[in-house]
């Protein structure tokens, strides 16, 4: 823990939260990640050893309760929500723009999307299989198996019939997810092409709850326009 040597609540807060990756771990805890592997999936550039160290730090600081194999945000952590999403609001207005190449990780995007799919939008179905195909990148094919109780992300064909296929530019789907580009605009420009069962294709945009930061990004885009 870095110490600043100043008696001030801001410096005490930075001593707890200012280390690299710590606030991103808090962000993911606040949006529902509970298990070590879930946190690791959402932060693939963070080594598992450092993730374990940061979680231990947060537990000692009283921000996380480690119960069995779950990491649960305490009230102190929950009270960081307006600060974390205040950063989202500020960043959307003053620090956000076109995605940079080093920010585009298809696996991370699909992991985030997995947690933001509303199965009820597809009706009373045993499962709905979405096949996502990117036009460039190292890993280009993913499957989301959507069921009422769970949404699974698969890196190889799970063996079920595909109901909806999404062909997309990676940067475009990222911007749709983050709220910087409207789904309809991406489809009209063919940056995202969706095919398959007509009713399910129509239901797809209703099923995507989008990123928790999307409202702030949309607000910033509207203000700049």
UniProtKB/TrEMBL annotation:
Keyword Transcription attached: yes
Keywords: DNA-binding, Transcription, Transcription regulation
Domain HTH hxlR-type, residue spans: 8-99
Pfam families in the cross-refs: HxlR, SCP2
Domain of life where this protein originates: Bacteria
InterPro entries: ArsR-like_HTH, HTH_HxlR, SCP2_sterol-bd_dom, SCP2_sterol-bd_dom_sf, WH-like_DNA-bd_sf, WH_DNA-bd_sf
GO molecular function, one term: DNA binding
Protein name (database record): Transcriptional regulator, HxlR family
Origin species: Trujillonella endophytica
């Amino acid at each position: 823990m870095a110490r600043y040597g100043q008696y001030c609540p801001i410096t005490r807060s930075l001593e707890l939260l200012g280390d690299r990756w710590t606030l991103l771990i808090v962000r993911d805890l606040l949006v529902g990640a509970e298990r070590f592997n879930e946190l690791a999936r959402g932060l693939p550039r963070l080594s598992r050893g450092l993730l374990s160290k940061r979680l231990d730090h947060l537990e000692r600081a009283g921000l996380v309760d480690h119960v069995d194999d779950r990491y649960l945000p305490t009230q102190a952590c929950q009270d960081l929500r307006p600060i974390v999403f205040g950063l989202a609001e500020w960043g959307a207005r003053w620090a956000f723009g076109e995605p940079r190449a080093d920010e585009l990780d298809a696996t991370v995007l699909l992991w985030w999307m997995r947690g933001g799919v509303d199965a009820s939008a597809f009706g009373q179905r045993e499962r709905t299989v979405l096949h996502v195909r990117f036009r460039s990148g190292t890993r280009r094919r993913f499957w989301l198996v959507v069921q009422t109780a769970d949404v699974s992300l698969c890196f190889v064909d799970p063996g079920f019939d595909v109901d909806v296929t999404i062909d997309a530019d990676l940067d475009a789907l990222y911007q749709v997810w983050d709220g910087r580009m409207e789904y309809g605009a991406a489809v009209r420009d063919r940056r995202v092409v969706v095919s398959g069962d007509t009713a399910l294709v129509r239901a797809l945009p209703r099923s995507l709850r989008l990123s928790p930061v999307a409202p702030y990004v949309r607000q910033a885009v509207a203000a700049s326009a």
